[in-house]
Amino acid sequence: MPKTSLANPPRDPERARDAHxxxxxxxxxxxxxxxSGISIPGVDAWIYCQPFRAQxxxxxxxxxxxxxxxxxxxxxxxxxxxxxDEVDQTAIALRxxxxxxxxxxxxxxxxxxxxxxxxxxxxxxLFATAVILTYFAPTDQIICCLAGHPRPLLYRAQTxxxxxxxxxxxxxxxxxHGLPLGIISKTQYRQFAITLGQxxxxxxxTDALIEARGEDDEMLGEKGLLALVESMRVGVPAHxxxxxxxxxxxxxxASPESRDDDLTVLVLxxxxxxPAPISLSHRLRMMIKMMGL
Length: 293
Known about the structure:
This protein is α+β, with helices and mostly antiparallel strands. Mean pLDDT is about 80; it is low at about 1-15, about 175 and about 285-293. It has helices at about 85-100, 110-120, 220-230, 235-250, 280-290; strands at about 20, 25-30, 35-40, 45-50, 55-65, 70-80, 130-135, 140-145, 155, 160-165, 190-195, 200-205, 265-270. It has a single domain, classed as 4-Layer Sandwich (Phosphatase 2c, domain 1), CATH 3.60.40.10. It is built from 5 helices and 13 strands.
């Protein structure tokens, strides 16, 4: 498919230099409408959250955390089947889980904790899907855990090729993606790691993108979304997320005001910068935060 240049977005998200710089032991995010840049050592990110019918908050929850040394950065995107107070309470519980796991590389603990949370709310009909992405700066690796969530998109800058972020061939099993949260109380979740090159992109999203319907009334699906990004020019990473949303809206005839589901897109750009050296005062501040003082 030939490359086509998309129009500039109606409002530019923050560039990396204007992004929110994550601090040690910080957890940032929520379920409110937002278009913002976030920066951790090694990754510049942009989050675009557009709740159902342009409301101020919705059922999509996003969080970013960073450990005290800047070596572990975590990105979480959850799509909750519901709105209102239950989702707001779930967002708070998710923040607490992110904070407890801020120093851990193993993110399956978060998935299991979330699953328990939603299992307790099953009588209210709440369940969710989630993707958890942990960046480990010393090895330039991204670790992915999926709980019934659509697979993120992966762009390799060196080859200019897009693909779906999946476990390496030969390691997939029937439980690679895990079940959605809250379906079975003791579901197990798997994770896998890939090494990023400088300039690579990862695009995570909620299912509003792949459930958008074209003129033929068929859902776009993962393969359709992959074909769409392959037709786009990547350009400036800070613009790519909004450009992608606009492209899907044009194909489906939707808009933020008419869309019948929450929509969130998270774009990660690997800049390969190393964490800054840690001073003694920084270590002391980190210990104080860990002790809750």
